[in-house]
Design brief:
Structural class: mainly beta
Amino acid sequence: MAGERVKLEVQERESSGSSAAARLRREGIIPGVLYGRGKKPHAIAVPERQLRTVLSGPHGRHAILDVVLSGQKTSHASILKDYQVDPIRGRITHFDLHEVRLDEAITAQVAIELTGESPGVKEGGVLSALVREVSVEALPLEMPDRLVLDIGGSEIGTTLRVADLVAPEGAKILDDPDTVVVTVAAPRVEVEEEVPEEELAEGEEVPEGEEVPEGEAPPEEAAAGGEGESETTEG
C-alpha cells in the first residue's frame, strides 16, 4: 500500500520563464509546479537528486508527499501527478505536484506486476502482456503501489482479464473488467507450401522417367522437326 509519507522541501521560484528554468537545470535543480485545491499554483523547484530519491522509493510516484515550502512550517499533502524526462540525457526536466485531501478519493494509474511461472510458456507458448497498468480509485493513503497478477496457472490458450486482478480493500479498479491483460498463445509453426505441378513455369523440362503427354513431341524432336521441313517442288 502507498501509505508511506515522504517529506519534500521545495523552494519557491520567483520567475517561471523558460530561460530561468534552463538556468536551474544547469545547476541540477528541477523546476515544477504545486497545484493547490482551489488555490493559486506555486512555481517551485527541488534538487534533482532529492526528487529522484522520492521517485525511486518503495512507493514510487504513489507516495504521499508532505511538501514544505522553504521558510514555512505548514506541509501540503500532495501526490506526484506528472513529470517529464529528457529523452536523450534521461534527466528529469519538469514535475507537477497536486495537493490532495487525505479523506477524499483520488484516481491514479497503477502498474500490473506479473508473478509466477506460466506452464504454457514452459511448453513453448508465447506470453503477451497487453495491458501494463489500470486506473484505480482510492483514498490517497490506500492507493496500491501495484496490482499483482499470478500467471502460475496459465496454460496455452489462457486469457487473463482485468476481472482477474484483485484490488486491496478500499481500492476500486475503474477499467472494463473484460479488457484482456495477458494471453498465452500457441507457438507459430511455419509450414512450407508445395507448389502444384500445374503452376510450374512453361518450358520447364519434364523430369527424367516421366512420360510425355500423348500428341506432344519432346522439345528436342519438335525443334528438329521444325528445322527439317522439306520444300515442295513443281512437277
